[in-house]
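debug: dumping io for the single-chain case to check the tokenizer round-trip. Nothing else runs in this session.
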Amino acid sequence: MKFDDFPIVMPFVRRPSSYIGGEINSVKPDKPHKVSFALCFPDLYEIGTSHFGMQILYYLLNKMENVMAERVFSPGLDMEQQLRKTGRTLFSLETGKSVSTFDVVGFSLLYELNYTNVLTIMDLSNIPFYARQRDDSYPLIIAGGPCMVNPEPVADFFDAIVVGDAESVIVQMASDLLKIKTNNGKTDKKAVLEAWSRIKGVYIPEWYTARYDDQGFEHLDPKKGSVGTVSKAVTPWLKNEDFPDKPVLPFGKPVHDRLRLEVARGCSRGCRFCQAGMIYRPVRERPVDEVLSQADEALKNTGYEDVSLLSLSTGDYGGLNCLIEQMMFKYSSKHIAVSVPSFRAGSLDQNTMQLIKSVRKTGFTIAPEAGSQRLRDVINKNVTEEEITRTVNDAFSLGWNLIKLYFMIGLPTETDQDVNEIIALVRRLSKIGNKQKGKQKLNVSVATFIPKAHTPFQWERQLPLETAKETIKYLKTSLTNRQIGFKWQNPEASFIEGVFARGDRRLSRLIEAAYMKGCRFDGWSDSFNFNFWLDAAEENEIDLDFYTKRKRDTGEPLPWDMISCGITKAFFIKEREKAYQQELTQDCRDGSCSDCGICDFKEIKPRLNASENRSTSTVNTVLKTQKIFTVKNKLAIDYAKTGPAGYFGHLEFINIFIRAINRAQIPVFYSQGYHPMPKIVFPDPLPVGVESEKETLILTVNGMVEPDAVKKALNQELPEGIDIKDCRILPETKGKKKAEDKTSIYRIESQADIFDNKKADAFRQREHFLLEKQNKKGVVKKIDLKKIVSNLEVIDKKRLMMEIKEISGQKAKPTDIAGALFELTEKTVKQARVVKIETI
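debug: decoded output
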């Protein structure tokens, strides 16, 4: 979609910045290429832009000559409606071209409840759902991600599926396609799939025939020339050259709005419920110096204020203490915070926690998983209540006011006593907060355990839906305390997730049927409709309980048997037996090999940081490196906000500007306290969709700066449509400046003939003209437009000039005023272009 089309669609969607593209570090639309990839994330922009794996693939593909990768996200329901209403197809962010025009459309599948969103993207792109329905005129449709260790429920939709680490696989797939397309002059689907089938980790679903025996079990028969087992691709070590040092900087505020550094991949703690801990083995840690180098480069290229150390269990990273101390030494004076999003209780000491909170307190989450020690031993959690208690006590004593606790219900061998132990443990932990000064709180989150493929519990039954509902209700009523917050995952959503986690190819028609009924964004509680799924299952004669309620025999054929994640079935069976004996398996990093089968001890093996000596530095010595300026200066910065930038919301715009300041290395002054913020003031926020030829912000800086240098530096860092016009130092003022009356001049443009001089004259002649406005609370307020509209000039039937005075309590948008004066429909008003000329 081109910018000229934006007014037709964008005014009617909730967050237009999610669809305009042009973000900092995104690939330029004019990149020369012969092969194109559309990297699709089947969820909203604010979710998908936080996915680190997609950033890696985007970076690797765009490094290649003659290859270009663009991004596509699931459109919100409002955008889907607008695309259907206007007859437009779904488009990429970088060039705005239709998804159906790409050579390859690739989906990252992290969550089973996103499967219907895959069909949304294909449907809005006019691409048939099933691989057998697509000839060479359509893109090749591929998928990857953790869900694809059991690809069968969606196998019929895809031409190829990547299992395991995708770094080397995606580059080889692009190289093969480039070679075939160059030689043949077109994309020969058959030739491409034959080439891809020779790459380790690539599964071609149509080369396997699914048949079902009398018990309903799926068997996959390889067709002639197909391999019997597809082994996952493993990146032996995390290569520095694969790190996206210029990650795309999203507009708005994604769910994880920070720089994400992958310090390690894989986990060998061996939690028996955890699929990620099994399929991402072995453990591969980055050297501390490499992480620091990556952080320096990526922070310079993004301007982020937060760094998140990414891993399945960051607390187990061998160089963690050394890394955090060095990061705080380098970044604390720049007000850059460091967070550890996932760690095991007891893995952080007080000194490290003190360092983390010294700049800005980030989130603090602990996952006991089970309330009783007996059940934690069953699942091989390898954490004691003493370690949990000590970690909570340390966090509260160091100033954290909120700690999140995660638990699961329905774990194998769970009894009523185990459920009661969740309540007892939470109550004991809440008493720790009672002893501290302040308002300490625990947020408890509970989810139903879902048996996953390629885990020791893959044969277990899932807790019946009614039992799950009753258990959650019991926990909720038992944890009624002002210091305890309680949240839970919808058991019905967990039930559907469980169906697909261990489902087979028969479920593709269930996904299609549910999609046709209206299922979208099933992972979002306000969108999930359980009845649609039940109706779709009944209409297609699919027994959902077959996939969830029954306990499976270890000799039973499994739909994912042809996928090898490197861990042997014998290991899973042994671990399952040990679970019933409450016998622990130690982390192989701390002891002997557990013989899971993943390592060949030549190329594939654990790669660990040597245990690093902890520095003797303390928080105080680290923070002494900060430079404290006593001289402050205020800058007035004039800027224009036009074109696509007019679709930024005010908070989005602030974020964009602050990060441009950081990248430009302008010494901005920060406030004091627990959450330091840059001192920047935007006096006149613009509504979404309104452009401006001249706005002014006030920026406070440390020390002396050269205004022209600030202007030049910012213009190099800001996205299209934001242009710094002037920068000057403001003189010092004593006391508060008296507020002045202001008038803003607007130009309104329309593609249709909507402005009439007669109606303008009629307005001028009236003594009063009341406009009724209803606020978010439903309160209706009357505004006299004669008081605030000081001048009205119809230039021609498509253009209007308007001057609006700023009067307290009497405010209205230019479009609302124009709509009322010229009796325009809401659609006509919203599609008009509004440009603020200046404020006088």
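debug: round-trip ok. The two ends are 36 Å apart (CA to CA).
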